[in-house]
Amino acid sequence: MFWNDVYKGTPPWDVDHPQPAFQALIQSGEIKPGRALDIGCGRGENAIMLAMNGCNATGIDLAENAISGAEVKAMERHVKVNFVVGNVLQMDRLFTEGEFDIVIDSGLFHVMTDEERPVFARQVHRVLKDEGKYFMLCFSDKEPGEYELPRRVSKAEIESTFSSLFNIIYIKDTVFDSLLSPSSRKAYLLSAVRN
Ligand SMILES: C[S@@+](CC[C@H](N)C(=O)[O-])C[C@H]1O[C@@H](n2cnc3c(N)ncnc32)[C@H](O)[C@@H]1O
């Protein structure tokens, strides 16, 4: 499987620190202690940060190699995170309705196909409690270059995917740290509240 194979090495998004955009949400108080889910958590830096800041944190990823790396990291740092191998498009098999106060997404939405996007939005909506918060970081269409993947997403695409199920608070310009050169890419940060 593609996602499991990429974690045999170090993929470009696998930086050894949480994404600054999520760190800022903790500093600003937008992310508060609560039941938090990191979808497509990879090797777990963002989920571990949530746990270190008072959240009861769960991370889910399709790639077993990513989850085993995340578990080792959390153990070495003496942090408790519930890491789960699973498909975000089938979270109804794993989590109950309204199980989480917060969902964060660092680079998962931007790998979804057009067909997957509505399923994805419904799954995120389902696992959040009423008025639960969804924070999503994705590559933005302001990022220059010829490459096709991952997709660079427009504000209009974010709105059309999420606005029927979520109240969009803001879509801000920010950056996505990576191991590529230059090391940060133009990104959007979505803050949304479940309807
Ligand atoms: C761009 S990476 C970002 C990883 C991590 N959030 C980070 O910031 O390092 C996208 C992640 O989503 C995972 N993924 C892709 N499709 C998925 C799905 N349908 N369900 C769960 N995880 C998925 C991949 O295995 C990968 O770890």
> What is the H/E string?
HHEHEHEEHEHEE
Overall shape: it is: globular
Rg of Cα set? 15 Å
Number of structurally distinct domains: 1
Q: Which sequence of strands runs across the widest sheet? A: 3-2-1-4-5-7-6
- Give the CATH architecture: 3-Layer(aba) Sandwich
What name does CATH use for the topology?
Answer: Rossmann fold
CATH superfamily: Vaccinia Virus protein VP39
Structure annotation, total helices: 6
Supply the helix-strand structural class: alpha/beta
CA-to-CA gap between the ends?
35 Å
Average per-residue pLDDT, rounded, comes to 96
Class, according to the CATH hierarchy? Alpha Beta
Spans of at least 5 consecutive residues whose pLDDT stays below 50 are none
Provide a descriptive summary of the structure in words:
The structure is a single chain. The longest helix is centred in the middle third of the chain and has 13 residues, at 64-76. It is globular and about 40 Å long. Strand 1 (35-39), helix 3 and strand 2 form a beta-alpha-beta unit. It has a single domain (20-25, 33-194), classed as 3-Layer(aba) Sandwich (Rossmann fold). The chain starts with a helix and ends with a strand. The mean pLDDT is 96. It is built from 6 helices and 7 strands, in the order H-H-E-H-E-H-E-E-H-E-H-E-E. The protein has helices at 2-6, 20-27, 45-52, 64-76, 116-127, 155-162, and strands at 35-39, 56-61, 82-85, 100-106, 128-139, 166-177, 184-194. Strands 3-2-1-4-5-7-6 form a 7-stranded mixed β-sheet, sandwiched between helices. 28% of the residues lie in helices and 29% in strands. By secondary structure, the chain is α/β, with parallel strands linked by helices. The structure holds S-adenosylmethionine (SAM). S-adenosylmethionine binds next to strand 2.
